[in-house]
Amino acid sequence: MNRILVTGSTGTLGRPVIALLHRLGADVRGLSRHPSHSSPADSPALPADGPLPAAGPRTFRGDLATGEGLEQALAGMEAVVHCASDTRRMGRTDLQATRNLLDAAGRAGHPYILFISIVGVDRIPYPYYRVKLRAEALIEAYGGGILRATQFHDFVLGGARLAARLPIALAPDVDVQPISTTTVAARIADLLDDPRPGRAPDLGGPEVLHTPDVFRSYLTAAGSHRPVLPIRLPGATFGAFRRGAHLTPHRSPGPHWSDFLQNHFPGTPTTP
Ligand SMILES: NC(=O)c1ccc[n+]([C@@H]2O[C@H](COP(=O)([O-])OP(=O)(O)OC[C@H]3O[C@@H](n4cnc5c(N)ncnc54)[C@H](OP(=O)(O)O)[C@@H]3O)[C@@H](O)[C@H]2O)c1
């Protein structure tokens, strides 16, 4: 598939996805409420208006929650990679956004849609995951594809940074299987080469690590001597994470968490 719209193209995953598809020669465009936030490094020449540039993806202005701008963004598209999510508000607008996207796609010639979801959304009663699961059902009814991935390196780093704001860093006493967004982007590109409806095999990071160890490795790399305290919480959600419902045996070869840290903090030892 060559003409591809990436929703959430300014996000953690959307940026490497749009950069990779562009490098692979696709006629790719992004969708964002704020096209000016697109990274020039990842997506050169990104005017919010005006004619398509000869080189570089264009980011279309649009709001999935209202449906504004979707008709223009979808015009002529063969496929959509749906990475957008209201992540800061636990997916509050995600169902309406997905409905709006599917309705607009139906009017625009029914392009293939690949939805990005999370491993374990059907096993963990976390409110955001419940929204993702319901969005998956909408995608399935449309005939789209679904790729579930484990937690992104950047997301885990965000958690570690947040924990490090306290004098003692509190770390959930659960495992994590962090994955590089470049690995997820590469799988997305493969799936677009052979578009199928329904769920693709889950995609997980190369190793399962204990979150307190991950936070310690971040603190060491960042030069901090803060202690890390593993914490357990009551409830079904934490219990499901404790049982590893967010992990998958489908492991990608790399990069590893240590490679990611090395990129952010040169001098950190990498995985041999
Ligand atoms: N983070 C993880 O560890 C992880 C793991 C597995 C799967 N996932 C899934 O992967 C997807 C991407 O996650 P991410 O971490 O890249 O998210 P992110 O960095 O928070 O980016 C969210 C993107 O969604 C866009 N967006 C939000 N609301 C929108 C709206 N109403 N209209 C148009 N665009 C909207 C934002 O664009 P603007 O603000 O520019 O409009 C932004 O580009 C999500 O579906 C997430 O559930 C995440």
From TrEMBL:
Keyword DNA-binding appears in the UniProt entry: no
Superkingdom assignment: Bacteria
InterPro entries listed in its UniProt record: NAD(P)-bd_dom, NAD(P)-bd_dom_sf, NmrA-like_oxidored
Keyword Repeat belongs to the record: no
One Pfam family, short name: NAD_binding_10
Residues in NAD(P)-binding domain copies: 8-195
Entry keywords, A to Z: NADP
Compositional bias annotation for Low complexity: 37-58
Region (Disordered): 31-60, 245-272
SUPFAM superfamilies: NAD(P)-binding Rossmann-fold domains
Alphabetized Gene3D superfamilies for the sequence: NAD(P)-binding Rossmann-like Domain
Protein name: NAD(P)-binding domain-containing protein
